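Tokenised fold entry reproduced for everyone:
>
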Amino acid sequence: MSKIILASKSKIRKEILDKNNIINQVEPSNIDEDLIKKSLLNEKASPEIISKNLAELKANKVSRKTSNSLVLGADSVIDLNGELISKPSNRDEALIILKKLNGKKHYLISSVCISQNGLMIWNYTDKAALTMKKMTDEDLNNYLSKISDEALYSYNVYQIEGEGKNLFSNIDGDKDTIMGLPIKKIKEYLVNYK
């Protein structure tokens, strides 16, 4: 299997690659995600299009600097009835997001893109449906008190393989997709890559 460069500083994405024996090195793209999201939202882009575009931009930016290397870009967003919900930047925002999702079904969209020499050569987007239990403000605050800052800002308010799984009455989708990297499809592509 080919070695790849991960255009992300996400520890969980690196862990997923390592666990699946995909040799990788990390080189964050450092794109201004908020600016790009704002621009795409102004153009009425759907959360899925925004996720795909961000994954591609990250991969392309890093791959322009590394000739012939395979570069993996990834992005995950929450889609609540067509509204894009981004990662919180503080605990107050995290609580607002949890209150929005409370008792509702939403989709977590994870997009991945592999680029080479500045151009996308493969991409894939997967979606998981999650239904959050109806919880009191006290329940939500208790949940937040158990979550580290790193987990809170990395995982879009819920860490599905940790405390976050207790927030949901129903989860329909691939766990790796929810964690930000649909690894089965990435492995399929890498195995067939020549």
